[in-house]
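Progress against Task 2.4 (sequence-to-structure conversion) is shown through the following example record, which the project officer requested during the mid-term review.
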Amino acid sequence: MKKLKFLITLSLFISLSYSFAQSKVAHIDTQKLISEMPEVIAKQKELSQLEKTYTTEIENTYKEFQSKAQSYAADAENQTEITNQARQKELESMQQNIQSFRQTATEDLQKKQVEMMKPLYEKAKAAIEKVASSQGFDYVLDSSAGGSVIMAQGKDLMNEVKNELGF
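Structure tokens generated for the chain above:
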């Protein structure tokens, strides 16, 4: 009985190994592909411009804050304690607004990046699947840096997928 179980297990293992050996496997560096897509490059420029806009707004507001703080500090001796306290509260409020705007800008940039890039990632994935299917590959492994697969051999689909995407 033990021999029969062993033979059945061995034949199952051999048949599975044979079926995997028959599978065609390709690889592609998806990070490189996506970074070279013209649409991605354009969206990254758009995001960079938005980031510059936010940075400029934050810098201008901070300069205004610094200017007021210096002016208030220089004039503090000539003002009443109530006026100085009101000015201090105003400066604290400005500082909180700057921090809040900085956080909101960061969140907005992250949200826009996801919104802009998700369709492009899906487009790249669809192109990879189409090229792999048309060439009869059963599996396509991601050979991006940091990925779980390191390949020395195998078909790289980079050029075909770029052609499919039109660049």
